[in-house]
Amino acid sequence: MKRRELLKTGLAGMGGVAAATTLSAPAIAKERMEINMVSTWPRDFPGLGTGAQRFAKRLSDMSDGRIQVNYYAGGERVKPFDSFDEVASGNAQIYHGAEYYWKGKHPGFAYFTAVPFGLTYTEMNAWIRFGGGQELWDELGAEFGVKGLMCGNTGVQMGGWFRKEINSVDDLKGLKMRIPGLGGDVMAKLGASPVSLPGSQIYENLVSGAIDATEWVGPWNDSFMKFYEAAKYYYYPGMHEPGAMLAIGMNKEWWDGLSKSDQLMVNAAASMENDVMMAEYNAKNGEALAKLINEQGVKLRQFNDDVYDAFGEAADEVFETVRQHSDLAARIHDSFVASRSTVGAWAKISDQAYVEQRNRVLDL
Known about the structure:
There is one protein chain. The protein is α/β, with parallel strands linked by helices. It has a domain at 31-153 and 243-282: D-Maltodextrin-Binding Protein, domain 2 (3-Layer(aba) Sandwich), CATH 3.40.190.170. Helix content is 51%, strand content 14%. It contains 13 helices and eleven strands. The chain has helices spanning 3-28, 48-62, 83-88, 121-130, 133-142, 181-189, 202-208, 219-225, 252-257, 260-296, 305-323, 327-349, 351-362, and strands at 33-39, 67-72, 94-97, 146-153, 160-162, 176-178, 193-195, 213-214, 233-236, 245-251, 299-302. It has a six-stranded mixed sheet with strand order 7-6-8-5-9-11. Helix 2 (48-62) links the parallel strand 1 and strand 2 (67-72). Helix 2 runs antiparallel to helix 10 (260-296), helix 4 packs across helix 5 and helix 6 (181-189) crosses helix 11. The N and C termini lie far apart (87 Å).
């Protein structure tokens, strides 16, 4: 072949490659996606609300704006506790909330936020990722057309705000307390009257006397809510939420229709918020507690052993009721217990033992 012919043939071939590349680009480019995300939290509420908003923005940013998330705080599109149905029906694609809000649909959902005498943040991560928790969560969610992922945690929560001291189980009888999830069922076993309220309605009910006590999260969030204006006794530790995990729930049909890379992007954005939120709570709770005590006159109290033992006995009764609900509920509970036993045993001689000795040496 002569040199002129070779050049002509080669250039023609390169032109073909360029043409193929040009033609194939639109075929492989992903279309812009606009999704609606609803939340159970007030807009800009520290930690809970801002964490949900961070996730929404992060997902948009990670996709360079290809995935546009329209975020709606609680009450802006639907009422906070209607978020689940909004997503399950397909009217929105994602919600952010606490799964125990949906325990009326199935008690198994409570385990994917927190249950009495349950898992701490690190233990919860271990169960969900390596102890079979995610698989059970997927099975449960599929019954309602949703897919859940971890997307935040508040850590060990406080036991609550009370107008009076709690020195015995008798002090709980007749008490109207805002406390959702299985923790509310435990309080009911002990004679209290649990009330389920979204965060935006707690303060007004506590101030008006419609409720006598409330739990919420911890010092950082609770000081923002100004509960100290209506109740001065602040109890710890919360038996009901030792590591309250927050979640995104997605319409399952929508999730299943995403590409593998988009599913990984959503998962990565949620996992990052799971880590960031817990770090934020750990960073801010201590300072907030000091201000509550020193500036707001809050009286910090610890539940005594008799009260805590009663919590434990009531929790066993509640768990048995959950197990009897269905085969899936029993399997979720049994898996949770198995993980609590193995991971908790290790934590006892690792994290717990170290922190106890460190605090003793440093007199913390």
